[in-house]
Amino acid sequence: MGGYRYPAAVSATTTPQYIGLDVGTTSLKGALIDATGTFLATASVSYGVSRPRPGWSEQDPADYASAAIQCIRELVASPHADPSRIASLCSSGQAPTLVLLDRDHKPIRPAILWQDTRAAAEAAELSKAAGSVALDDLLGMRWPVDASWPLARGRWLARHEPDTIARLAHILLPKDYVHFVLTGSMRTDAWSAKGLVHQGTLHPISGMRDLGDLPPEAVPVAGTPRDVVGTITADVARVTGLPTGLRVVCGWSDAMAAMLGSGAFGHAGTACDVSGTSEVTGVTVPSEAQDTGPLMTARIVDTGRWILYGPTQASGASLGWIMRTVNVPVEDTSPDARQAAALALAATVEPGAGGLTFLPYLEGERAPIWNPRARGAFTGLSISSEPGHLIRAVLEGVACSVRHILEYAVQYGHTPIREVRVAGGGARAQLWNQIKADLTGLDFRPCATTENGVLGSAMLGAVGVGDFPDLSVAGDAMVHLGQTVHPDPASREIYDELFRRYVGLYPAISGVTASRSDLHGG
Residue 13's pLDDT is what? Predict the structure, then answer.
């Protein structure tokens, strides 16, 4: 248990159980996990993403609530569940996704997802009007201006949907909306609500109405991810089987919870690569960096350490795209079988993919270029390029993005990387882990579970109700790791050359890879 001793009354038959939820982009996942990190049950409910116009991504908030109730019911009804031992529930979730409610606590419109880029023009206006230094002071953090900024989205709504602004009474994140449905309490954590909440004062940012047309009184009370926000209502207990009065802990953004669930926050110099639809890569540093370059930084709860990191917009999404685009011979058409076949095809190709270079900017890019209008590209195509070459080039392009971010993290964090913990669904892809290790020259160590977001949520729940003294101790007890993937020095020269091409490619072609909205004036 990492040196922490439970009270004598706790035994192997009374070990606490925790429910962790992750309100993701394509599904809500849940798990029942005990204090040793053992997964006792899992559940998942999928929902759709609406893309009514190019660059738009929306969801029905009702899907979050119904999926949460369904997942909880399945977990509580599982054979190893003991409702009397369930000590807490905690959710992580996608951010910055905005759920907008009226005075009756009803959604006004579909939630605007983190990947939505409709407010790119408004973000550019904010950057020009206020300047980066002023905006940093306003937010209490450095966050490169992009279309996901709540203030930019508020400006967009004021221009295009003024009735939404007129009716707006509450602004929540998806996980906070789920907690509201379960408890009747509206609370958030400051980091998930970045852009709405000042990271130092924990109060709504000043100038919110003037700069972003958003009412500061709509922002819920903000605290830390391990704060108890409320208790399960009697009605929810009756529907789900949860004990009445079960404590619900605030939770964190999905990326932060997944990094927490990898154990990367426990030691400075441990990096994490959360590999899913998008990718979040960073390294734990011993103190706050004075200059973060093109990356973001956040304080790690319960410690003096910070995480210096950056998100890649389309990593797993790039693999999904190439799998839909090229012919991958496979009899079983299930997603897992198709991905396995695609990876097997890529494995037949030598490192370097026959000279191909791929930019994974299919949905714009965040770190380190922060340009929602950037677009992906292949270079080096020839008559001999086959599907296996294209698939491998996509895997290598995403790995180049991981290296790009990690090199900035080392540069600005002044902390050498000891190893990289791999979390999320991409951790199952052994070939991809090997490519990342080879391309970065670092050890990559996949986690024993790919559901690191729900594990991180469960850890926050355990700490929030006092079952562990802090997150480092919880991590030592609950995080388990797989076998380390070591870099192969034989491919280092090839991959160093590929990375040089990758870094130089976007500046060379950015003018000819503009989005359609750029080319057609809106």
Answer: 61
Beta partners for residue 197, in sequence order? 194, 204
Beta strands in 276-393 (DSSP E): 279-285, 296-299, 306-312, 357-359, 377-379
pTM listed for this prediction: 0.87
Average pLDDT of span 31-60: 96
User: Of 105, 91, 247, 245, whose CA–CA distance to 168 is shortest?
Assistant: 105
pLDDT tens sequence across 234-250: 999 999 999 999 999 99
CB contact at 8 A, 497 and 26? no
The gap between the terminal CA atoms of the chain, to the nearest Å, is 57
Query: What's the topology of domain 17-254?
Result: Nucleotidyltransferase; domain 5 (3.30.420)
Residues of the chain within CATH 3.30.420.40 domain(s) are 17-254
Mind giving me the DSSP string for 181-248? HHHS--EEETTTTBTTB-TTT-SBPTTHHHHH---GGGSPEEE-TTSEEEE--HHHHHHH-PPTT-EE
Distance between CA atoms of residues 130 and 378, nearest Å: 37
DSSP bridge pairs for 29: 22, 44
Q: How many CB atoms lie within 10 A of CB 56?
A: 16
